Amino acid sequence: MRAVGLNNLDIWARSGPPGGRPVYPWTERRLPAVTGVDVAGVVEQVGPGTGEMAAGERVVINPILCCGRCEFCLAGEQSMCREYRIFGEHTPGGMAEFTVAPAGNLMKIPSAVAFEQAAATPVCCTTAWRMVVTTGRLRAGEDLLVVGASGGVGSAALVVGRRAGARVFALVGGPEKAAKAERLGAVPIDRVRYPRFSERVRELTASGVHVAADPVGAPTWPESIRSLRPGGRMVICGATGGERPSIDIREIYQRHRQILGAPMGNLTDFQTVMGLVFRGELTPVIHTVLPLSEIREAHRLFEAREHFGKVVLVP
After folding, report:
1. Beta strands 228-236; 209-214: pairing state
2. Are 125 and 285 contacting, i.e. CB atoms less than 8 angstroms apart?
3. How far apart are CA 136 and CA 140, in angstroms?
4. How far is C-alpha 87 from the geometric centre of its chain's CA atoms?
5. Which of 13, 70, 83, 299 is most buried by its number of CB atoms within 10 A?
6. In this structure, are residues 75 and 69 in contact, taking their beta carbons and an 8 Å threshold?
7. Per-residue DSSP letters for 219-268?
8. Is-contact 2 314, C-beta < 8 A?
């Protein structure tokens, strides 16, 4: 192990889901557990049938685990697999000095790319690409609203949206995060100042955004939907703030809006974002890099929502 990114799943594995509600897959935690989904390191030892992989290779792990046989896998939609699992969530992960992964899930890292940058990419950037590009069908010249833009997925959606040629509106909390979003090329909207942020979105766009990427859930859904222009698309990948929003369905069908699910992504999405990072065409946002021995501080920082982008740990 050389670097591992922190995610909500690591927090939930330790503390349980927000409010004690069952959140897949932690309906029944099995402890002790080693988490860590975003993983980069050096191959120490290989087993039989590992193909081109050899000891000493610099690699990043594709966290998508699937059967490879079902209709969804054969269609290239691995995250729809009936046996879909995530490395480091359903299996022992990378918050350690060593980990074990299927050879087929390893991707070589170019020598010019830092382990920390590679480890900041797989989950959040793959999910963001799936939300914004593959499912959201964002096009150059369109408007994108990113809810929770300071989080891992949110910050990734911001940079993916900017690369796609969209005007990006970043919903964040507080002036400091607003300034960071602006430095990344987004138009910040401070949720503290604009709790009814859809009104601010309409002020800035006249008719609303084409796409809204919302990984937060219940607290933001009503306003995210109202931020959409007629025919707009809201893409969701999680419910970190709650899974049971209160909505008026007339605000959806009477304005021809769509709500689309996009958890994680498929192998193509993963390979695409990793390739962009390797070529320097996409840069994941990293808030800080800490030694694994300071994981307590990493969890505190993450839970307090003090970060903007990924928190990465190095053994």
Report:
1. parallel
2. no
3. 12
4. 15
5. 13
6. no
7. TTHHHHHHTEEEEEEEEE---TTBS-----THHHHTTT-EEEE--S--HH
8. yes
Cα separation of 157 and 88, whole Å?
A: 22
One-letter amino acid at 218 equals A
CA angle 235, 241, 246 (to 5 degrees): 70
Considering the segment(s) 127-261 as one domain, its CATH architecture is 3-Layer(aba) Sandwich (3.40)
Structure tokens at 58: 């610099």
Question: Tokens 């963001």 correspond to what residue?
Answer: 128
Answer yes or no: are the C-beta atoms of 265 and 126 closer than 8 Å: yes
Counting residues of the chain whose pLDDT is more than 70, the rounded percentage is: 96
Residue with tokens 């766009």: 205
| Superfamily name with CATH number, domain 3-120+285-314 | Medium-chain alcohol dehydrogenases, catalytic domain (3.90.180.10)
Cα angle 285-308-121, degrees, rounded to a multiple of 5: 30
Residue 109, both tokens: 């890292």
Statement: residue 278 has pLDDT above 90 = yes
Which tokens is 25 given? 């897959």
Q: In this predicted model, what pLDDT tens digit does every residue of 256-269 receive, in sequence order?
A: 999 999 988 999 99
Crossing angle of helices 295-303 and 8-15, in 10° steps, is 100
What whole-number distance in Å separates Cα of residue 211 and Cα of residue 84? 27
